[in-house]
């Protein structure tokens, strides 16, 4: 497949303002790829070199891209910088300069998607002395054969700024349409995606083996499973009723979720976060313990990594666990803050996929392969049959510094990648306030006024994710809870994410000063959820939408462990609103 055709589709995607037409355009594009091209095409469209959990960065810095554009187009670096200053987009810069003409085209090769992607791989894989020159050289070579439009996307991709706005769900729906003729196979494709977290792999299997191959896909070690998530309910009575009168109740630890993949024969371990980032380097002690303490050839287990004082039996606050995020001094930190893994699930063991087995069986097996008295423990749990037992367990959990409890359906399978009632969380409720925090995607921002002028940021427009429609809906403006440093950092970050117009997957009735790519998540706490005609969250026809009253930032800036699709969903907001109403009536 020629890259000029891909680029023409990308341009159409950029220009559309509706999500449905995005699916039409993308499915037309995907249907043209050969099986040996589909993976590369999907990764390129996602703007990544490999499935995101591999963490492969292409690594071209702006100033190197400026150099490459100047050399390939036969213009001066000054000219490139001048256009970049004006447009803020090096993709456009490359396009404009190449359109103006180049001194001497190096090659008349008609670029193909596989060639472009392979060159990008080469660029990403080049390291060591002289690597920047080699990277620029490879980029110049590509640009020398590129049309102006192709140059736009090559440069944006190389900078990690392709930003076509197509999220996972949009790509899955487009694959369904491309290969089966309609969007109905999306749910099955999503199941496959939930167990391998690799859209390229899903596309490849679909194009090679059709829906049969998709149905046969099994868990593989070192391919992270998208995590199961918990629903919320406000009382023990309701939880127990929903669970059919009997369930497991576990402590909810406030640390970092860790999915641990273990291959003892190869002595290899990888640890993935809730957001499927590789955390292995952050937790060397858990990686070591996984090899020493898990009695299996191969296993995938899941738990919460948390800073825990064995002597006093005290759980340390989240802030202490997260300090491990710092790249330096991990060795020293592991002495100072020992981290334990409180394991709570088993997904795979010695060639057998455990996802479909009931919780009770998974947990029993988990307890049979680990001793539970080393660095890897088990989440504390009871089996409850009365609300009184749950309430007592909850109070004790809060008393010992935990976040709350998670109730688990004894008979339910592990439901990867979805928030279902097989897990229900109950957290400490704050008097007079919403009992839970809300994770918002930043959709836009407002200019700073008065004292905030210097930050270039006065407030944010926050949104939630509507899973059903695969769009982001606005719910609130947020202007409080920020420190000066957070303002400054956010201002700098968002400036780079600015978009010329509202992205196709954002639905809004209000207009911020600047739209941004929906990619950053923050956590806020609010007093209440109210109905509002201003916001599109949950808005149905003429009925009002939902909004937050007095939202304030509570996360330490951006939540690095969450991506836009992990934000609180519209469905959760509506459920929280209904629960809040109920508490008001009951209370
Ligand atoms: P939250 O901010 O409440 O942790 P979340 O969206 O990250 O929300 P949920 O699925 O809603 O995740 O809540 C479950 C989370 O609680 C898991 O992601 C995990 O990190 C954490 N957790 C702590 N203890 C447990 C446990 N025993 N079982 C399951 N999850 C647990």
What can you see in these coordinates?
The protein is of the alpha+beta class and 587 residues long. It has three domains: 112 residues, Orthogonal Bundle (DNA ligase i, domain 1); 199 residues, D-amino Acid Aminotransferase, Chain A, domain 1 (2-Layer Sandwich); 149 residues, OB fold (Dihydrolipoamide Acetyltransferase, E2P) (Beta Barrel). Helices cover 40% and strands 20% of the residues. It has 20 helices and 22 strands. The strands form four sheets. Strands 13, 14, 15, 16, 17, 18, 19 and 22 form an eight-stranded mixed β-sheet that branches. A hairpin with a 4-residue loop joins strand 14 and strand 15. The longest helix has 17 residues. The chain is globular. The N and C termini lie far apart (64 Å). The site of adenosine-5'-triphosphate has 13 residues, from strand 1 and strand 2. Adenosine-5'-triphosphate (ATP) binds next to strand 1 and strand 2.
